[in-house]
Design a protein that fits this description.
The complex is a heterodimer of chains A (216) and B (114). By secondary structure, chain A is mainly α. Helices cover 80% and strands 0% of the residues of chain A. Chain A has a single domain, classed as Four Helix Bundle (Hemerythrin (Met), subunit A) (Up-down Bundle). In chain A, α4 runs antiparallel to α5, α4 packs antiparallel against α7 and α5 runs antiparallel to α6. Chain A is elongated and about 65 Å long. Chain A starts with a helix and ends with a helix. The relative contact order of chain A is 0.17. Chain B has 114 residues and is mostly helical. In chain B, α2 runs antiparallel to α3. Chains A and B meet through α2, α4 and α7 of A and α2, α3 and α4 of B.
């Protein structure tokens, strides 16, 4: 970013009452508070990763304990989980484009890409709900076996994270629409996308460990 | 000499202000490839079960790097100093690996006990 652009940003944000500590930095890091919050969010992601690691450990240990009930091989529909995977991969990409446009200061495009990301997230959650309801209908409920308890807990925790992410992203879309791109809304866009990319990584492991190894 | 030395820096600055999000497009293509490879390997049973598991896991681990470096700006702190978050994330990876690995390891003794 050139110094004149940074200076004009500084003036504009000063008018909005935002104290810019570091106008030379990338927009989401311009306030000291914003930089600390991004660091804090990375620490949250590390702890959230440990939560998922515990659930993965539980699943890996219990995956063969089907107690005469359905196994993953009998349950999982390759087309279904492949669709879910490609939808989430694409949404991680569109979220990344929102960050890219944020760095270029294009408010309308940031909103557009975030809406697309949230819609892809919504269709992912919809497909997952359809999958869970189908399992419940054929008797593969969370009570049926240790494998299914572990399966619903692990995949359901990820689904809850995505659902929360959609609500969170919607609120940030509204904030960007109302206030435009400033160091505070930029930091929020950046952080919600960190969360979204993280959920995509977790899904890649669900896809591999739960679904692919389930149908092997 | 000084001009020669400064030229790559300028080019890098231009790359940061790119009009087209190459970094994200490359990341997206890589993540698609790294998903299709294990999917094809598993669906067509190209290789035996044990190497298949490791190949699928390797693709998943590579996807972590794609997301971290191409999407999440892992190495960048926007000029706010050292990337301290890499320390916490490394510790997180260590614990995640230990919890899953140690659980699998300890359960291999389950057959002996029962």
């Amino acid at each position: 970013m050139s110094s004149s652009v940074a200076a004009s940003h500084h003036a504009a944000h000063h008018a909005e009452g935002i104290h810019v500590d570091h106008p030379e930095r990338s927009v989401e890091y311009q306030t000291e508070d914003g930089s600390l919050k991004i660091l804090g969010f990375w620490i949250f992601l590390a702890t959230d990763m440990i939560l998922f690691a515990c659930l993965f450990a539980m699943f890996v240990v219990l995956r063969t304990h089907i107690d005469g009930g359905p196994s993953g091989k009998q349950l999982f529909d390759v087309t279904g989980f492949t669709e879910e995977t490609f939808i989430l991969l694409t949404s991680s990409f569109t979220g990344g484009i929102a960050t890219f446009e944020m760095h270029r200061g294009k408010k309308g495009r940031v909103i557009g890409w975030l809406i697309l990301t949230a819609l892809l997230g919504l269709s992912f959650v919809g497909l997952e709900l359809k999958e869970f309801i189908h399992y419940a209908h054929i008797g593969a409920t969370i009570q049926r076996s240790a494998f299914l308890s572990a399966f619903f807990t692990l995949v359901g925790t990820h689904g809850c994270h995505v659902s929360v992410g959609i609500l969170w992203m919607t609120s940030i879309i509204l904030q960007v629409a109302k206030r435009g791109i400033n160091p505070i809304t930029a930091r929020k866009v950046f952080i919600v996308n960190l969360y979204w990319h993280f959920l995509d990584v977790v899904w890649v492991f669900l896809f591999t460990v739960v679904y692919l190894m389930g149908v092997m | 000499m000084a001009e020669h030395a400064s030229q790559p820096v300028n080019q890098q600055e231009h790359a940061h202000e790119a009009r087209f999000p190459w970094q994200y497009v490359i990341g997206f293509v890589l993540s698609l490839i790294l998903t299709i490879i294990p999917l094809e390997l598993v669906l067509h049973h190209v290789i035996p079960l044990s190497p298949l598991t490791w190949a699928a896991l390797a693709c998943a681990v590579l996807q972590i790097f794609v997301q971290l470096f191409l999407f999440m700006h892992f190495t960048s702190t926007g000029g706010s100093g050292p990337a301290y978050h890499s320390v916490t994330l490394t510790i997180g990876f260590l614990f995640a690996f230990l919890f899953v690995g140690a659980s699998i390891w300890i359960m291999t003794f389950n057959n002996i006990a029962s």
